[in-house]
Specification:
By secondary structure, this protein is mostly beta strands. It contains 1 helix and 26 strands. It is globular, with a radius of gyration of 26 Å.
Length: 404
């Protein structure tokens, strides 16, 4: 009997030990899962397509690729700066070798990455920009182009094949941020189809967004930061430390009373206007009449050229997300539109697929795929294939294509 009792006690101790170990493992597993959950977020997911676009014909090469737009047929339009192609990369044009030649400024690709159309450059009846900046294809297929050269004070409108239609502004003439006839280094054009209007951020020289009738080019309205009348007063350089109090929390930023570099504008289906004030590291939101709604700073310690270079909506009906390019930190931030919180980011500096050097402009197609152009000597466009919404890490790094 005593022997049996000893066996029972021994087995009971072993059983209790197993339960304790199992419980501890379970607790550790729960904590691990909680940690994984805390490190991820639900957001759009992408993979780079390293084979898009296909090589250009005619030994063509591109310079700083400074604009992108997707038309109603899901064709991808880009504009680049031919004068930025290095001499060592255009030997054929210089009659010093076979490779290469500078491509026309406007290049159009189909969904497979084939070049299907090209045109652009100086011509009769209009002033082609000295430094191309931005391209927008409207819902009628017309093409709007801006420029940020020192004397680029005009916006051009062409039909789909490059036939000149309209010029707003006179090249080389500008009279400040309240001039309603001319621009000064305008940056991006956005079409509001519902109102038949185009919004133009203006720009490197001026400090405003300005709105015109999309058909006639008739002036409608303009405004500056916080919805105020813009001024051209000299502003102190952006100082992120001035935005924090002694505890390191954000203070009122109204001292930044003007836009520094209004670099992009997008208008949502529910009537909100989003403007990226690039060098001031912020996004400001307005109603269509210019009434200020709110602002948010994105990576506010980013210096040099700032943290918000361009923005684009996700393609779901609610436009739940905003993609925002940061060409200093070389990544794409994914924001929840309702709060402008940065949910996740992807990308890194470099020359390989999925890396960036000067990620400058963004566009999406009807399938939700994202196209990113690069300025400086990045000089290219990349396609990021939309893989649905799901859990992703907050800092994804380079989003490579899945191994097949």
């Amino acid at each position: 009997m005593k022997q049996m009792q000893r066996v029972i006690k021994h087995n009971l101790r072993a059983f209790l030990a197993v339960i304790a170990v199992t419980t501890a493992i379970g607790v550790l597993w729960i904590h691990h899962n909680e940690g994984v959950e805390a490190a991820t977020v639900k957001a759009p997911r992408f993979e780079v397509d390293p084979n898009w676009p296909k090589p250009l014909p005619n030994h063509w090469v591109t310079g700083s690729t400074i604009g992108v737009s997707v038309d109603s047929q899901d064709r991808v339009w880009t504009i680049h700066r031919p004068n930025t192609v290095e001499d060592n990369f255009k030997a054929a044009d210089l009659k010093l070798g076979e490779c290469c030649k500078v491509a026309p400024p406007v290049l159009v690709y189909d969904q497979a990455g084939n070049l299907v159309k090209s045109w652009g450059g100086p011509g009769a009846g209009y002033d082609w920009p000295d430094s191309n900046h931005g391209i927008t294809v409207d819902h009628k297929g017309n093409v709007w182009i801006g420029g940020n050269g020192a004397k680029d004070t005009q916006i051009l409108k062409f039909d789909n094949d490059g036939k000149f239609l309209l010029q707003l502004g006179k090249h080389g003439i500008h009279n400040g941020s309240n001039d309603i006839e001319n621009f000064w280094q305008p940056t991006r054009i956005f079409e509001d189809v519902s109102a038949n209007e185009v919004y133009i951020t203006d720009g490197y020289g001026n400090r405003r967004v300005i709105v015109f009738d999309a058909d006639t080019g008739r002036y409608k309205r303009h405004w500056g930061a916080y919805g105020n009348k813009p001024t051209d007063d000299k502003e102190p350089p952006y100082n992120p430390a001035a935005l924090e109090d002694s505890a390191g929390t954000n203070k009122d930023a109204s001292s930044l009373k003007n836009f520094s570099t209004p670099h992009c504008v997008i208008v949502s289906k529910d009537g909100l206007v989003y403007i990226c004030d690039r060098v001031n590291d912020r996004i400001q939101v307005f109603h269509k009449d210019g009434t200020f709604v709110k602002e948010v700073f994105i990576e506010p310690k980013t210096l040099r050229s700032g943290s918000v270079w361009d923005m684009e909506f996700s393609r779901d009906p609610q436009q739940t997300y905003i993609y925002a390019a940061n060409g200093v930190n070389e990544k794409i931030n994914v924001l929840l539109r309702s709060t402008l919180e940065v949910l996740t980011s992807f990308g890194d500096g470099g020359r390989g697929p999925g890396q960036f050097f000067g990620c400058h402009n963004l566009a999406t197609d009807s399938k939700g795929n994202l196209y990113v152009t690069e300025t400086y000597t990045g000089a290219r466009i990349q396609k990021f294939v939309f893989k649905g919404v799901g859990p992703v890490e907050r800092e994804q790094g380079v989003v490579r294509a899945a191994t097949r």
